[in-house]
Amino acid sequence: MSNNKNFVSEPRVILIGAGIMSATLGVMMKELVPDLTIEIFERLDRAAAESSDAWNNAGTGHSAFCELNYTPELPDGTIEISKAVKIAEAFEISKQFWAYLINNNKLSLPDAFIRSVPHMSFVKGEKDVHFLRKRYDALTRCHLFNGMQYSEDPVMLAKWVPLIMEGRSNAEPVAATCMELGTDVNFGALTRCMFDYLIKAGGVNVHFGQEVRRLDQESDGRWRVRLKDMETGERREVKSNFVFIGAGGGALGLLKKSGIPEGKGFGGFPVSGQWLVCNNPEIIERHHAKVYGKASVGAPPMSVPHLDTRIINNQKALLFGPYAGFSTKFLKQGSYFDLPKSIHLSNLKPMLYAGARNLELTKYLIDQVRQSPEDRLEALQEYYPNAHLEDWDLEIAGQRVQIIKKDVALGGILEFGTEVVSAADGTIAALLGASPGASTAVSIMITLLSRCFPDRFHSEATQTRIRQMIPSYGRSLAENEQLLEEIRTFTSSVLGLQSVESKL
To answer: What is the pTM of this model?
Structure first.
């Protein structure tokens, strides 16, 4: 994908950041308004180079099948599944949109970015086994989780995940759930496929090495975006009716530069990560699943440990982690001044209050930063008892920025998730936060479109067009089992995934 130097000085839409969010919004808008002109600006030299990159992103098609942090245990002992249901349904919506694009020859072959990989949860110890059993019972009451299997039998678990069971003592109780309908998604490949389509569709230009320096709203409501060429230092301006800030960890700083009142009070807490990546082909071939466990006390959701089968550039890989860390950067290729520069009078109080209530998280991150190779190996051996250090290499993962926002009762709270922040007039919007963002990108962008373009979005023509792209749109997959079966059969066929009827 080459850098287009031909700027449209007054496009109808500007997208800042060339990641999965901008790609998804750009494709949806282009499908709804084919003659739309869009300019896309990215500070790096290629698309999907930050959080959307395969090595920076967790890569799980987040469906809440295996992520235990999406199903917390309440004080009364019950399992809360509402977030899991919402995420599972959102991922089904994303798959429908991707299937539509493939069916209409707008994307390359599906195996370039999505494959079937079972999703599993694994726990040990009486307390966690009891939790997982209750979680299984709660989730399987909802048909979104039909097909989930549960076992406490070491023989069965050894068939599902031999690496995890070999060398493990039989004295300690273990349990696992397995969903064969899980997926592995290369969001970097998907993002680049989407940008290729946008360029071919016409009226869309992608510019790399362009840093947004200022955002100012004019009296007529349009936005003036001031840019700097990272290579030549050249500066120029572009005006637009609508701006979307999809710059990952960089979105918070740009939102502040916009000056919209809706952006006041937001802060960010950066969390970095590292992976242990297996370098032994024999070990890689013996594991085929995404196996999630329980997070340590105080750990952020992105640090939930997992032994993770990945397919990157058509090569099978095996990762363990991520090990959390702390950096004041908001982007992997950002500045160490990102965090201090993000602190203003409007968000100082929320950040101080949130920090005071998350001391366990601070201690956890400090402990993670201080880990030795032997410490990391010990954490891996909790999941793979026979692991040896020479079979694993340490790699740097992506950077995440968790949301800190005002709270009337608490002063400020740290949130783990994503949030759309938009101006009252709908002319600018930003996406803040992290996981499970990429997997739920389509649902997020539907929300954004409805909020920023309410009249056009709710027109009969637009609603009809959205239903063509997302057949279940306007109907609840969580409440309609037959519809879910029909949708899953369709998307599995088009995307080349494990069929609904398949069994382990």
So the answer is: 0.90
